[in-house]
Amino acid sequence: MKVTQIPFQKTGFFSKTMVDYLDQKENLQPFYNQFPDLEGFKKQILEKQSSFSESSRLMLADALQKQYKSVAKSAKTASNISLLKKTNTFTITTGHQLNLFTGPLYFLYKIISVINLAEELSEQFPNQQFVPVYWMATEDHDFEEINYFNYDGKKVTWNRKDGGAVGRFSTEGLAQVFEVFSGHLGNSKNAEYLKKLFADGYLKHNNLADATRFIANELFAEYGLVIVDGDDEKLKQLFIPFVQEELQNKTSFTEVSKTITSLEESYKIQVNPREINLFYLGGDFRERIIFEDNVYKVNNTDISFSKEEIFKELDKNPKAFSPNVIMRPLYQEVILPNLCYVGGGGEMAYWLQLKDYFDAVKVPFPILLLRNSVQVISEKQARKLAKLDIDKSEIFLDQYELISKKVVENTEIETSFKDRKQFLEQQFIGLKEVAKKTHISFLNAVNAQERKQIKGLEKLEKRLLKAEKKRQADLVERITKLQNELLPNQSLEERQRNFSEYYLEYGATFIKVLKETLHPLDLQFTVLEM
Q: Which of 282, 369, 270, 355 is nearest to 322 (CA)?
């Protein structure tokens, strides 16, 4: 095993927002609280400790005990749930959709990031306890985003009727998906484990939330991971005051809109708030709450409430009020003694829109940490890279740029026309001096001729590189094939592949290696040669 670390900023796969965040650019600093370093965590502990009540801890622990009632949790997970009752215990949280069979590979990297960060903080701050948390996005309703995963270039899909919160979806129909997936796996020891994990998860549990909890628990329980389902009566009770605030004052819309006005001067906006950032959750629907004609209406239904009625409904049935992408982060921070949210670049970008909102409702804004990212390279691929003289950091170059660079390095011909262009420009300097002494029309003609000849040289330069690529067709083909293997669809493999591909090859060793290798606070992209 060989590990190479590359700054996220040098991969070219992260947005300007994330690059500037990692570089701690001054113009982005107003949009977050503490930076993810040990000094930042020290301050965050003090802030969260003073603001998170003991009663909230007891309600959280009680809700989790009930959620885990039928789950074979590890001793470490059981201990962590109990630890949440103590005032010196804090969580490190990541969230993820209920993607079929965990979805993209980066699901593993998110979970291992929070596990390893919790362990590192326990060493650095021995007087506190730190619990890794996976927040299941059970209330999402975007089924088309989660109903498939990619395996060996094939899309394994679960087709069913859409509607309502995905965590409540019946697992009916997944037996057919299991048959399709099993057919791809073969009969090795690792294949049998994957089949059992899928079958025990989806064919022995009635809904998607329970199935997802089972699978995540099977993979990570030994590390003490605590899995939280926010679609919970007790937890929603803790959130009632903030839902009331939203319904009455539309606070999130006001505050996030102000933030967007400042942020969009330099950065792309990830999400836009609605006037009310809540859904109403029914048995088979999740629809927006709209305030119209002095009445609260549930979009696409006949349900409506007066002001008095909706507050009564909230007290009686808090579980029906579901936060959207703007309010979900607040819900998480209200019910958890959380210090840090670990997520991908897109998630970090929308969290940066929320700090003013958090400040307005007086909830501490968590530290934001970009999760670990990994590129796995086999020994065979590593040998090919070495033969092609491709450095690990060059893997992530745009394919045209990578091929051009290697073709130029591999030829004895001078492919750059830089000197020729400079020589031509020098010739025209003298000619322009002559032109200045006569009519302006001649000077214009000289300038036009200069541009024409420079452009002609640039075209020839490109033609020469193109000709060299044809001459070195074998090299071009080998580079193209290898990079396409490493970066499917010219994207990071963690966004395209499912963990099962690597589990099939390496078994449980794959997760153990990731656990030993990834260091979240290093803020580096990891290239892992196995």
A: 282
45: left (phi over 0), alpha (psi -120 to 50) or beta: alpha
Q: Which residues of 139-174 are buried (b: 16+ CB within 10 A; e: fewer)?
A: bbbebeebbbbbbeeeebebeeeeebbbbbbebeeb
Three-state DSSP class for 392?
A: helix
pTM of the model: 0.94
Quote the CA–CA distance of 133 and 225 in Å, as a whole number. Answer: 6
List of long-range contacts for 19-25, beta carbons under 8 Å, 24+ apart: 20/266, 20/267, 21/348, 21/352, 21/368, 21/370, 22/370, 22/523
Residue 430: predicted pLDDT: 87
- Say which residues have a Cβ less than 8 Å from residue 234's Cβ, sequence separation at least 6: 59, 62, 63, 66
Write the Ramachandran bin of 256: left for phi over 0, alpha for psi from -120 to 50, otherwise beta.
alpha
Q: What Å distances lie between residue 377 and 23, 392, 481, 482, 489, CA to CA?
A: 28, 10, 14, 11, 17
Nearest by Cα to 520 from 112, 21, 14, 32:
112
Mark residue 153 as left, alpha or beta (left: phi above 0; alpha: psi -120 to 50; beta: remaining). left
User: Which DSSP state fits 364?
Assistant: P
Distance between CA 170 and CA 148 in Å, rounded?
A: 16
> What would the pLDDT profile of 9-26 be if each residue is shown by its tens digit?
999 999 999 999 999 999
Helix (H) or strand (E) holding 368: strand 367-370
Tell me how far apart the alpha carbons of residues 346 and 107 are, in angstroms, rounded to a whole number.
Answer: 14
